[in-house]
């Protein structure tokens, strides 16, 4: 005999429209004894998402995007319960679980409304596609063998985080630029030090991957910015526009740098854009959408040039330092960095064998472009259209 859960799921999860949801929710609302089994079924659906390559932050981001904040809170409750069953989570998973929104209380505001929302969430979870794994799920043999040792944040990252916080807080563009430049220089130096240390200890390791949300609006411009930050920090970025995230491939210290810098630059760029837009409105202009799109594209493109130049300068300086190699260190450093670049490229191509390059044509507002370029570093640049890998 079919259980209430089976009948509710059959009605709601494998059909389109609201009629099936209403039928399933009515069955569940009338039977409080089914509550625990309903949530066990949800944890099973979450485990299926892990097997398809998803991680906690990915699931919540997609639920929030496709449903709403209430759905994200329901998903957080399932994820918290499901991951509690593991003895130890990988560090990235633990960070994501700790950052989840507060779980939604059960059966609020009433049993029918709650059951309907839960079934709508389950319908979405069941339809999540298979994506490229950004590391093994917890509880597997691969997880145990690939889990990095738990440790506190390196001192260099703490310094970088403090510099970027100051850049976000200052009201002076020149100071923000100087602080961001210093942060990128520290990131580049930290990456070089980690690469040399790994070479000396013969602990090459392997590149990993991290998914970073790229949310609407103006997601194409944000993806260009993230691609620029990734490239400047010896990583590769692949944007999934349908699912609203970019997967960044690189070595762990570089992935940390990319996530920190992208988040900060997005905050700084948004603040500068809002200020510039206010001036445009005061002058009687109303091209808000095209102004913002053009602003962010210019901001992203110019920053790509700046960050790449910062990294090149630090690399050249490190290669000229005495201590290894007959030419002052360059013969030791460059092969190490080249080997890591090859490893990152091979990993990215293995994960994404069929990427395409998308040419963006969204910059149609000249004043938006000029303001975006100025926000990046007060310098002019050419108008070459950006490209990103998808």
Could you characterize what this model shows?
The protein is mainly alpha-helical and 390 residues long. Helices cover 64% and strands 6% of the residues. It is built from 15 helices and five strands. A three-stranded antiparallel β-sheet has the order 1-3-2. A two-stranded antiparallel ribbon has the order 4-5. The longest helix has 32 residues, at 288-319. The relative contact order is 0.09.
Structure at a glance:
With 390 residues, the chain is mostly helical. It is built from 15 helices and five strands. It has a three-stranded antiparallel sheet.
- Rounded to the nearest angstrom, the radius of gyration is 24 Å
| Amount of helix | 55-70%
Question: Helical stretch count?
Answer: 15
- Cα shape: globular
The proportion of residues in beta strands is 5-15%
């Amino acid at each position: 005999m079919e259980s209430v859960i089976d009948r509710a799921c059959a009605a709601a999860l494998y059909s389109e429209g609201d009629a099936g949801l209403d039928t399933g929710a009515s069955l569940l609302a009338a039977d409080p004894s089914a509550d625990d089994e309903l949530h066990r079924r949800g944890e099973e659906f979450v485990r299926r998402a892990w097997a398809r390559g998803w991680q906690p932050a990915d699931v919540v981001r997609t639920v929030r995007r496709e449903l709403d904040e209430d759905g994200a809170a329901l998903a957080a409750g399932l994820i918290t319960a499901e991951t509690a069953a593991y003895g130890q989570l990988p560090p990235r998973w633990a960070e994501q679980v700790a950052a989840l929104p507060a779980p939604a209380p059960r059966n609020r505001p009433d049993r029918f409304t709650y059951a309907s929302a839960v079934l709508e969430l389950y319908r979405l979870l069941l339809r999540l596609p298979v994506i490229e794994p950004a590391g093994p799920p917890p509880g597997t043999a691969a997880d145990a063998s690939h889990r990095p040792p738990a440790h506190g944040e390196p001192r260099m990252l703490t310094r970088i985080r403090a510099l970027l916080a100051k850049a976000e807080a200052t009201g002076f563009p020149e100071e923000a630029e100087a602080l961001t430049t210093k942060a990128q220089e520290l990131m580049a130096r930290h990456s070089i030090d980690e690469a040399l240390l790994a070479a000396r200890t013969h602990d090459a390791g392997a590149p990993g991957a991290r998914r970073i949300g790229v949310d609407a609006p103006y997601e194409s411009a944000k993806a260009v910015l993230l691609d620029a930050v990734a490239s400047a920090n010896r990583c590769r970025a692949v944007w999934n526009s349908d699912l609203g995230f970019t997967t960044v491939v690189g070595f762990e210290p570089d992935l940390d740098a990319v996530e920190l810098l992208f988040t900060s630059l997005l905050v700084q760029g948004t603040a500068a854009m809002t200020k510039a837009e206010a001036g445009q409105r005061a002058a009687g202009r109303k091209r808000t959408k095209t102004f913002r799109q053009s602003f962010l594209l210019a901001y992203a493109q110019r920053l790509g040039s700046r960050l790449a130049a910062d990294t090149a300068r630090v690399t050249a300086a490190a290669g000229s330092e005495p201590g290894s190699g007959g030419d002052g260190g360059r013969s030791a450093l460059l092969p190490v960095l080249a080997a890591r670049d090859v490893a990152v490229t091979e990993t990215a191509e293995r994960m994404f064998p069929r990427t395409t390059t998308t040419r963006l044509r969204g910059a149609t507002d000249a004043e938006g472009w000029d303001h975006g370029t100025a926000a990046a570093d007060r310098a002019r640049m050419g108008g070459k259209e950006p490209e990103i890998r998808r």
